[in-house]
């Protein structure tokens, strides 16, 4: 594994530190500015998942194929994929519908020392062109897609994936049991407190995000991935209510 991409500068996330009018969470310029700190302190295991995306990409990226990071935000997983690609004829695409995210992502791609070319698109991942894919990443992205559009997106990805190709899907999930859900939610909140978030920040962020981030069960994800056209679904990572799966297209 390489030394990996350079880490974006860490600007402390204080977006929810004071009382504010309730509104839905948006990936705007204010979020883009603090996003590296926000996601590191909010998502258990994120700093493990990113370098493992490089490892998985190295194993599955095929010659003369396309690799996609859908919902690339600032490009952490894009750059991890970039460092995992070992074929000169691979093409890598990062796609996000936030102008602010793409603008900062361009900056980090320019700073990175890999020679693999990266094309960034400010587009809706539901309509962006997909073809000849060997590795696609949805790193905590599908959860923001309306539930009624998720099968459509995954079917498009599966149809565009070459035999032996994969989808890396990382998601926040919910649990079948209310008791387990309560335990995992409590542990997640303790993780945030351990990273310096106050009860006010945790509460306000949860209120802002609960209408736009719709989690599903692990079983629901597996069933949808298989029905979309992938042959196998492997759970390769879990920390509390955050998981990452590998969906594999049949050879």
Automatic annotation (TrEMBL):
CDD domains attached to this UniProt entry: AdoMet_MTases
Stored SUPFAM superfamilies: S-adenosyl-L-methionine-dependent methyltransferases
Keyword ATP-binding: no
Keywords: Methyltransferase, S-adenosyl-L-methionine, Transferase
Catalysed conversion reaction: prephenate + S-adenosyl-L-methionine = carboxy-S-adenosyl-L-methionine + 3-phenylpyruvate + H2O
Positions annotated to bind S-adenosyl-L-methionine: 46, 71-73, 96-97, 124-125, 139, 206
Recorded GO MF terms: carboxyl- or carbamoyltransferase activity; methyltransferase activity; S-adenosyl-L-methionine binding
Pfam families recorded: Methyltransf_25
The protein's Enzyme Commission number: 2.1.3.-
Domain spans labelled Methyltransferase: 69-165
GO biological process, one term: methylation
NCBIfam families for the chain: carboxy-S-adenosyl-L-methionine synthase CmoA
Family: Belongs to the class I-like SAM-binding methyltransferase superfamily. Cx-SAM synthase family.
Complexes and interactors: Homodimer.
Function statement: Catalyzes the conversion of S-adenosyl-L-methionine (SAM) to carboxy-S-adenosyl-L-methionine (Cx-SAM).
PANTHER family registered for this protein in UniProt: CARBOXY-S-ADENOSYL-L-METHIONINE SYNTHASE, TRANS-ACONITATE 2-METHYLTRANSFERASE-RELATED
Protein name: Carboxy-S-adenosyl-L-methionine synthase
């Amino acid at each position: 594994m390489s030394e990996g991409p350079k880490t974006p500068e860490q600007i402390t996330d204080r977006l929810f530190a004071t009382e504010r009018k309730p509104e839905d969470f948006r990936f705007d310029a204010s979020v883009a500015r603090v996003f590296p700190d926000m996601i590191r302190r909010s998502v258990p295991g994120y700093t493990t998942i990113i370098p493992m995306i490089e490892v998985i990409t190295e194993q599955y990226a095929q010659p003369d194929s396309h690799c996609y990071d859908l919902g690339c935000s600032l490009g952490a997983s894009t750059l991890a994929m970039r460092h995992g690609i070992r074929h000169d004829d691979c093409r890598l695409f990062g796609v996000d519908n936030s102008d602010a995210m793409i603008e900062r992502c361009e900056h980090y791609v320019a700073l990175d020392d890999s020679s693999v070319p990266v094309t960034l698109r400010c587009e809706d991942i539901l309509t962006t062109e997909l073809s000849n894919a060997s590795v696609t990443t949805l790193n905590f992205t599908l959860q923001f897609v309306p539930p009624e559009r998720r099968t459509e997106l995954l079917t498009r990805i599966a149809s565009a994936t070459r035999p032996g190709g994969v989808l890396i899907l990382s998601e926040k999930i919910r649990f079948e049991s209310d008791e387990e859900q309560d335990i995992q939610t409590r542990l997640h909140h303790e993780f945030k407190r351990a990273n310096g978030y106050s009860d006010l920040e945790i509460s306000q962020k949860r209120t802002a995000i609960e209408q736009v981030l719709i989690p599903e069960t692990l079983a629901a994800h597996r069933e949808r991935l298989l029905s979309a056209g992938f042959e196998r679904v492997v759970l390769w990572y879990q920390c509390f209510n955050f998981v990452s799966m590998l969906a594999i297209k049949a050879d």
